[in-house]
Amino acid sequence: MSESRDIDGWPKLEARMASATEVHAFGQATLIYNYLEEVTGRMLVYYLPTDIEFSEALFHRMGNPDRMLLLTRLIEGQERDSDIIEALKHFIRCYDICTENRNILMHASLEPRTSPDILPLSKRSKDMRVGKIFFHLKLSDIRGAADEMGDVFDYGTRLKLWLTYRSDHDPELAKMMGWPSYPARPPLPDKPQKPRKLSLFQPPKDQPSDTSPPAPSQGMRPGGSKG
Q1: What is the DSSP string of the chain?
Q2: Between the CA of residue 9 and those of 99, 139, 218, what are the distances in Å?
Q3: Taking the domains of the chain in order of start, what are their residue ranges?
Q4: Each residue's pLDDT tens digit, 171-204
Q5: pLDDT over 60 (residue 224)
Protein backbone atom coordinates (compact mmCIF):
# COMPACT_ATOMS: atom_id res chain seq x y z
CA MET A 1 0.00 0.00 0.00
CA SER A 2 1.31 3.44 -0.90
CA GLU A 3 2.15 5.54 2.17
CA SER A 4 2.30 8.79 0.22
CA ARG A 5 0.16 11.47 1.86
CA ASP A 6 0.11 13.92 -1.03
CA ILE A 7 -0.19 14.07 -4.80
CA ASP A 8 1.92 16.80 -6.42
CA GLY A 9 2.16 18.62 -3.09
CA TRP A 10 -1.58 18.58 -2.38
CA PRO A 11 -3.25 18.76 0.10
CA LYS A 12 -1.39 21.20 2.33
CA LEU A 13 0.85 19.61 4.95
CA GLU A 14 -1.35 20.44 7.95
CA ALA A 15 -4.43 18.98 6.23
CA ARG A 16 -3.05 15.56 5.26
CA MET A 17 -5.06 13.07 7.26
CA ALA A 18 -4.48 9.77 5.46
CA SER A 19 -2.55 8.25 2.57
CA ALA A 20 -3.43 9.22 -0.99
CA THR A 21 -4.73 5.71 -1.67
CA GLU A 22 -7.05 5.88 1.34
CA VAL A 23 -8.35 9.33 0.39
CA HIS A 24 -8.88 8.04 -3.16
CA ALA A 25 -11.02 5.18 -1.81
CA PHE A 26 -13.06 7.58 0.32
CA GLY A 27 -13.61 9.80 -2.73
CA GLN A 28 -14.76 6.90 -4.89
CA ALA A 29 -17.25 5.81 -2.22
CA THR A 30 -18.63 9.34 -2.04
CA LEU A 31 -19.03 9.77 -5.79
CA ILE A 32 -20.55 6.37 -6.56
CA TYR A 33 -22.96 6.69 -3.64
CA ASN A 34 -24.20 9.99 -5.07
CA TYR A 35 -25.05 8.18 -8.32
CA LEU A 36 -26.72 5.39 -6.37
CA GLU A 37 -28.82 7.93 -4.48
CA GLU A 38 -29.84 9.54 -7.77
CA VAL A 39 -31.10 6.30 -9.31
CA THR A 40 -33.00 5.58 -6.09
CA GLY A 41 -34.70 8.95 -6.47
CA ARG A 42 -35.65 8.15 -10.04
CA MET A 43 -37.22 4.91 -8.89
CA LEU A 44 -39.30 6.69 -6.26
CA VAL A 45 -40.40 9.28 -8.84
CA TYR A 46 -41.51 6.42 -11.12
CA TYR A 47 -43.93 5.12 -8.51
CA LEU A 48 -45.20 8.39 -7.05
CA PRO A 49 -48.55 9.54 -8.53
CA THR A 50 -47.52 13.21 -8.34
CA ASP A 51 -45.80 15.24 -11.10
CA ILE A 52 -42.06 14.84 -11.61
CA GLU A 53 -41.06 18.23 -10.19
CA PHE A 54 -42.96 17.68 -6.95
CA SER A 55 -41.80 14.06 -6.66
CA GLU A 56 -38.14 15.03 -7.05
CA ALA A 57 -38.48 17.83 -4.49
CA LEU A 58 -40.15 15.42 -2.06
CA PHE A 59 -37.34 12.89 -2.45
CA HIS A 60 -34.67 15.47 -1.66
CA ARG A 61 -36.53 16.70 1.41
CA MET A 62 -36.91 13.22 2.92
CA GLY A 63 -34.36 11.29 4.98
CA ASN A 64 -33.32 7.85 3.76
CA PRO A 65 -35.45 5.85 6.25
CA ASP A 66 -38.59 7.69 5.09
CA ARG A 67 -37.59 7.33 1.44
CA MET A 68 -37.21 3.57 1.79
CA LEU A 69 -40.43 3.18 3.75
CA LEU A 70 -42.40 5.17 1.16
CA LEU A 71 -40.84 3.30 -1.78
CA THR A 72 -41.60 -0.04 -0.14
CA ARG A 73 -45.23 0.92 0.46
CA LEU A 74 -45.62 2.17 -3.12
CA ILE A 75 -44.20 -1.05 -4.53
CA GLU A 76 -46.45 -3.19 -2.35
CA GLY A 77 -49.47 -1.14 -3.35
CA GLN A 78 -48.84 -1.03 -7.10
CA GLU A 79 -46.98 -4.20 -8.10
CA ARG A 80 -48.60 -7.61 -8.42
CA ASP A 81 -45.72 -9.68 -9.83
CA SER A 82 -43.83 -11.35 -6.98
CA ASP A 83 -40.57 -11.49 -8.99
CA ILE A 84 -40.62 -7.74 -9.54
CA ILE A 85 -41.51 -7.04 -5.92
CA GLU A 86 -38.62 -9.19 -4.70
CA ALA A 87 -36.18 -7.59 -7.18
CA LEU A 88 -37.14 -4.11 -5.99
CA LYS A 89 -37.05 -5.06 -2.31
CA HIS A 90 -33.60 -6.57 -2.80
CA PHE A 91 -32.47 -3.23 -4.23
CA ILE A 92 -33.94 -1.41 -1.20
CA ARG A 93 -32.16 -3.73 1.24
CA CYS A 94 -28.86 -3.26 -0.58
CA TYR A 95 -29.28 0.51 -0.80
CA ASP A 96 -30.00 0.67 2.92
CA ILE A 97 -26.68 -1.06 3.75
CA CYS A 98 -24.79 1.13 1.27
CA THR A 99 -26.28 4.20 2.91
CA GLU A 100 -25.20 2.99 6.35
CA ASN A 101 -21.65 2.35 5.11
CA ARG A 102 -21.50 5.70 3.34
CA ASN A 103 -22.61 7.53 6.48
CA ILE A 104 -19.88 5.82 8.50
CA LEU A 105 -17.20 6.82 5.98
CA MET A 106 -18.44 10.38 5.55
CA HIS A 107 -19.15 11.26 9.20
CA ALA A 108 -16.33 9.47 11.03
CA SER A 109 -13.23 11.11 12.48
CA LEU A 110 -9.71 9.71 12.27
CA GLU A 111 -8.19 8.43 15.51
CA PRO A 112 -4.44 8.19 16.23
CA ARG A 113 -3.18 5.23 14.26
CA THR A 114 -0.77 2.60 15.45
CA SER A 115 -0.45 0.67 12.17
CA PRO A 116 -0.04 1.93 8.59
CA ASP A 117 -2.42 -0.81 7.43
CA ILE A 118 -5.35 0.09 9.72
CA LEU A 119 -7.41 3.25 9.52
CA PRO A 120 -8.94 3.80 12.99
CA LEU A 121 -12.19 5.78 12.81
CA SER A 122 -14.68 6.92 15.41
CA LYS A 123 -18.21 8.23 15.11
CA ARG A 124 -20.75 9.49 17.60
CA SER A 125 -23.55 7.01 18.06
CA LYS A 126 -27.15 8.19 17.77
CA ASP A 127 -27.64 6.45 21.10
CA MET A 128 -26.32 8.96 23.65
CA ARG A 129 -25.78 6.16 26.16
CA VAL A 130 -23.19 4.59 23.87
CA GLY A 131 -21.07 7.64 23.07
CA LYS A 132 -18.48 6.87 20.42
CA ILE A 133 -18.40 3.85 18.19
CA PHE A 134 -15.16 2.71 16.55
CA PHE A 135 -14.15 1.15 13.24
CA HIS A 136 -10.74 -0.28 12.35
CA LEU A 137 -10.72 -0.44 8.56
CA LYS A 138 -8.23 -1.68 6.02
CA LEU A 139 -7.90 -0.05 2.63
CA SER A 140 -9.59 -3.14 1.18
CA ASP A 141 -12.63 -2.53 3.44
CA ILE A 142 -13.14 0.98 2.06
CA ARG A 143 -12.57 -0.11 -1.52
CA GLY A 144 -14.90 -3.06 -1.02
CA ALA A 145 -17.68 -0.82 0.29
CA ALA A 146 -17.23 1.48 -2.73
CA ASP A 147 -17.25 -1.47 -5.15
CA GLU A 148 -20.46 -2.80 -3.64
CA MET A 149 -22.07 0.63 -3.95
CA GLY A 150 -21.13 0.45 -7.63
CA ASP A 151 -22.69 -2.99 -7.99
CA VAL A 152 -25.94 -1.79 -6.40
CA PHE A 153 -25.92 1.35 -8.57
CA ASP A 154 -25.57 -0.81 -11.71
CA TYR A 155 -28.38 -3.09 -10.52
CA GLY A 156 -30.66 -0.15 -9.70
CA THR A 157 -29.97 1.46 -13.09
CA ARG A 158 -30.84 -1.74 -14.95
CA LEU A 159 -33.94 -2.23 -12.81
CA LYS A 160 -35.13 1.32 -13.52
CA LEU A 161 -34.56 0.81 -17.26
CA TRP A 162 -36.59 -2.41 -17.03
CA LEU A 163 -39.48 -0.50 -15.42
CA THR A 164 -39.23 2.25 -18.05
CA TYR A 165 -39.37 -0.29 -20.89
CA ARG A 166 -42.38 -1.97 -19.32
CA SER A 167 -44.17 1.39 -19.54
CA ASP A 168 -43.17 2.67 -23.00
CA HIS A 169 -41.86 -0.39 -24.94
CA ASP A 170 -39.14 1.75 -26.55
CA PRO A 171 -37.54 -0.42 -29.28
CA GLU A 172 -34.28 1.55 -29.07
CA LEU A 173 -33.98 0.79 -25.36
CA ALA A 174 -34.66 -2.89 -26.03
CA LYS A 175 -31.95 -2.89 -28.69
CA MET A 176 -29.47 -1.12 -26.40
CA MET A 177 -30.10 -3.60 -23.58
CA GLY A 178 -30.20 -6.67 -25.84
CA TRP A 179 -33.80 -7.45 -24.89
CA PRO A 180 -36.38 -9.22 -27.06
CA SER A 181 -38.87 -6.98 -28.84
CA TYR A 182 -42.26 -6.19 -27.33
CA PRO A 183 -44.52 -7.96 -26.35
CA ALA A 184 -41.88 -10.40 -25.09
CA ARG A 185 -40.93 -9.64 -21.48
CA PRO A 186 -37.23 -8.94 -20.94
CA PRO A 187 -35.44 -10.69 -18.08
CA LEU A 188 -35.00 -8.87 -14.80
CA PRO A 189 -31.37 -7.94 -14.03
CA ASP A 190 -29.30 -10.34 -11.95
CA LYS A 191 -29.29 -9.48 -8.27
CA PRO A 192 -25.97 -8.45 -6.74
CA GLN A 193 -24.86 -9.94 -3.47
CA LYS A 194 -26.05 -8.06 -0.43
CA PRO A 195 -23.30 -5.60 0.61
CA ARG A 196 -21.31 -6.23 3.77
CA LYS A 197 -21.75 -3.83 6.65
CA LEU A 198 -18.60 -2.15 7.90
CA SER A 199 -17.80 -3.87 11.16
CA LEU A 200 -17.65 -2.19 14.54
CA PHE A 201 -14.38 -2.43 16.45
CA GLN A 202 -14.77 -3.29 20.12
CA PRO A 203 -12.11 -1.47 22.18
CA PRO A 204 -10.64 -3.19 25.26
CA LYS A 205 -12.95 -3.12 28.26
CA ASP A 206 -10.58 -0.86 30.20
CA GLN A 207 -10.81 1.75 27.43
CA PRO A 208 -14.16 3.61 27.68
CA SER A 209 -15.75 4.02 24.27
CA ASP A 210 -16.68 7.66 24.83
CA THR A 211 -13.22 8.87 25.87
CA SER A 212 -11.70 11.36 23.45
CA PRO A 213 -8.09 10.67 22.38
CA PRO A 214 -5.33 12.97 23.61
CA ALA A 215 -4.65 15.97 21.41
CA PRO A 216 -1.88 15.32 18.84
CA SER A 217 1.49 16.77 19.77
CA GLN A 218 2.87 19.66 17.74
CA GLY A 219 3.63 18.61 14.19
CA MET A 220 1.40 15.55 14.46
CA ARG A 221 -1.96 14.99 12.79
CA PRO A 222 -4.78 12.55 13.60
CA GLY A 223 -3.21 10.08 11.19
CA GLY A 224 -0.43 9.57 13.72
CA SER A 225 2.64 10.60 11.72
CA LYS A 226 4.59 13.76 11.03
CA GLY A 227 4.56 15.66 7.76
Answers
A1: ------BTTBS-GGG--S-HHHHHHHHHHHHHHHHHHHHHHHHHHHH-SS-HHHHHHHHHHS-HHHHHHHHHHHHHHH---HHHHHHHHHHHHHHHHHHHHHHHHHH-EEPPPS-TT-EEEEEE-SSTTT-EEEEEE-HHHHHHHHHHHHHHHHHHHHHHHHHHHHHH--HHHHHHHTPPPTTSPPPPPPPPPPPPPPPPB---TTS-TTPPPPPPPTTB-TTSSB-
A2: 32, 22, 21
A3: 13-110+139-177
A4: 999 999 999 999 999 999 999 999 999 998 876 6
A5: no
